[in-house]
Amino acid sequence: MEPKKNCNLCSRLVDLRKKNKILFPNFYNNRVLGTGPFSCELLIIGLAPGLRGANRTGEVFNGDFSGNLLFKYLNKYNISESYSEFEEISNLNCRITNAVKCLPPNNRPNSLEIKKCNVFLSSEINKMKNLKIILTLGEIAHNSTIIALNKNLTEFKFKHLKKHKINDQIILLNSYHCSKYNINTKRLKLTDLDYIFKLIKTLLNF
Ligand code: SF4
């Protein structure tokens, strides 16, 4: 199950979408679905589309700083082969999605929006029968994932670089979001991203 085009479950986000269709008529301005095969063992979960990133291009983690940085690391660790704006990603060996599929004001979805969109995240996770590693980027993505997995938030708390054992099959890794702000403020260091992707490669044996 995935959200239909022009999904109208979240009125605040629908209002913002309508405004952006006027302000930015050349942008995609709609819900953004995940990308990558459901058969993969790795799932990367971000927060929500960025105004000038996925909300503009229509492709998850595409067209802005966060997307460029994420794909730089996916390429570096041979999880994808190429990436450029508006072009198809080749040989993507993971699935990438967002906890919330529509652009929220100030990049902050509210709890109701997170809850409403969680049904789609949960469905996406459940389709991944070979799933072994989930990398969540930021606390909202982490909390949404824990809810989608029907786990307890008090038992699984977000902590940067923490590894959570969800069950015998799935390990969840936490990182701060690879946003420009987090990189510029050094909250997230490039060496942290190397640590995470090396760990993923080791855990997945590829
Ligand atoms: S955030 Fe999710 S549930 Fe809300 S309108 Fe967008 S697609 Fe629908």
Rg of Cα set: 16 Å
Q: What best-fitting shape do the alpha-carbon axes yield? A: globular
The CATH homologous superfamily name equals Uracil-DNA glycosylase-like domain
CATH class: Alpha Beta
In percent, how helical is the residue content?
A: 25-40%
Mean pLDDT across residues = 94
CATH architecture: 3-Layer(aba) Sandwich
Order of helices and strands: HEHHEHEHEEHH
Number of domains: 1
Which ligands are bound?
iron/sulfur cluster
Number of strands: 5
Strand order of the largest sheet: 2-1-3-5-4
Largest sheet: 5 strands, mixed
Named CATH topology:
Uracil-DNA Glycosylase, subunit E
- Taken as a percent bin, the fraction of beta residues is 5-15%
Structural class: alpha/beta
| Contiguous runs where pLDDT drops below 50 for at least 5 residues | none
Report how far apart the termini are.
30 Å
Q: Quickly count the helices.
A: 7
Commentary on this structure:
By secondary structure, this protein is α/β, with parallel strands linked by helices. It has one domain: Uracil-DNA glycosylase-like domain (Uracil-DNA Glycosylase, subunit E, 3-Layer(aba) Sandwich). 37% of the residues lie in helices and 11% in strands. The chain has seven helices and five strands. A five-stranded mixed β-sheet has the order 2-1-3-5-4, with helices on both faces. A hairpin with a 5-residue loop joins strand 4 and strand 5. Helix 4 packs across helix 5. The protein is globular and about 45 Å long. The two termini are 30 Å apart. The mean pLDDT is 94.
